[in-house]
Write a sequence for this structure.
């Protein structure tokens, strides 16, 4: 064993004191270890354990590929035996691409995210195992785990590399703990215009369109203005944008607007 | 422009005829292009467009790093101008790490998946833009898009590489179209034992435990058996496993079981 975990820096883990641990079984390439470390830190995971890394430890390529995720590399722990790497964990998940003969619960990463959050909330220590790059985990590793995680991807082509697999599990862990709306109209420093501002813009617009002969068929005018209102109303138009549009109207009309209202 | 899109092979796209297109603006490294192609195909995305790739095209490193995602590389199209790369698209999303001054709707990848599925269902052609590796997209690219996609990750460390960003968007696209339960008890070829089989196992077990002096305090026996039942009941025990356990009981008792029932 080498490295010491120390107390978790919760500014790196989204405030979580005991986030899931990532365990790599017999990782082959330092590049992949480093990239996995980097993927982890993007997702607020900081504790990495390696069981019998092929090229030993420390590993220059791992450091180089961690690209700033030094906190993960520096605290990486090395183990000779799986049992020792897993000893303190209460919940162990193992990623595998192929379902196996074992009778085992199977999670998707989407399902695992909330499950791990629930585990952590009960102060359980959680680990997720990943196997060697080309061959994956063996049956004995599946037997050590409480459940399997399988990433549902294109059956016509499934070939994630190690860091990508770590990223997807980490991503789902992170997503399960954040509350970012799936969709927002991002107004940044702007603020939506008031209804009155917008209404006066439409009145201005209708007047200009009228005077420029845009409404060739009188009966269609209300419907056309409704359509035009819909164009601008759905974009959450801001105060500044109202000014911009009114300025455009003035310019288009050669600066001649004499507002009736 | 080079390459020809041809008709999409829907066995590679999960059955979707017109999946979202991935557009890389000024990609720098062939390695990253290849890895992005591989990430795409994992998620059922097959159409890649490059705008002013730094090292031109074709690119040996892109081929090497695509690791089997040849169908993507072979059909990659090259453009000198963004406008041409985007011309046939109805919906354009742009990934960016930083929110900007533009007033723009913002999706998370989680929100974008179903949105793109809805777009595609209406036969709209969809594209997602990604910027150059170190610098990301510029404001002009944000202006070309209908909405921005920002991946909510660790504010304490956010540094996805290009292929990982493509993977996360592609992963959410794929997830939004599949129906894999978040959790399953995977029984594989086994079948859960019948209630009767399980009950007879418990009776057998209780008898053996009794005869071996396990129940030292008589009043606690029902509660202890309840706990024991709970251990085995929650694992979805199979017929084969019942046999295994009963065989264990017999062996432990030195082969002496004389069943009372």
């Amino acid at each position: 064993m080498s490295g010491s975990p120390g107390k978790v820096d919760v500014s790196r883990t989204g405030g979580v004191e005991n986030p899931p641990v990532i365990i790599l079984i017999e990782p082959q390439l330092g590049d992949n270890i480093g990239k996995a470390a980097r993927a982890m830190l993007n997702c607020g995971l900081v504790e990495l354990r390696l069981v019998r890394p092929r090229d030993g430890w420390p590993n220059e390529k791992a450091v180089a590929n961690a690209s700033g995720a030094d906190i993960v590399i520096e605290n990486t722990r090395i183990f000779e035996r799986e049992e020792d790497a897993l000893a303190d964990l209460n919940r162990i998940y193992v990623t595998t691409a192929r379902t196996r003969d074992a009778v085992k619960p199977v999670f998707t990463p989407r399902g695992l995210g909330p499950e791990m959050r629930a585990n952590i909330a009960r102060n359980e220590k959680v680990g997720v195992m990943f196997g060697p790059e080309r061959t994956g985990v063996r049956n004995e590793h599946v037997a050590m785990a409480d459940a399997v995680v399988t990433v549902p991807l294109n059956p016509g082509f499934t070939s994630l590399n190690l860091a990508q697999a770590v990223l997807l599990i980490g991503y789902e862990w992170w997503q399960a703990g954040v509350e970012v709306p799936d969709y927002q109209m991002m107004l940044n420093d702007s603020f939506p215009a008031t209804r009155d501002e917008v209404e006066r813009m439409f009145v201005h617009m209708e007047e200009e369109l009228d005077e420029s002969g845009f409404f060739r068929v009188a009966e269609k005018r209300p419907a056309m203005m409704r359509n035009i209102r819909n164009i601008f109303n759905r974009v959450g138009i801001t105060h500044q944008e109202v000014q911009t549009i009114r300025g455009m109207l003035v310019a288009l009309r050669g600066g001649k607007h004499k507002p009736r209202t």
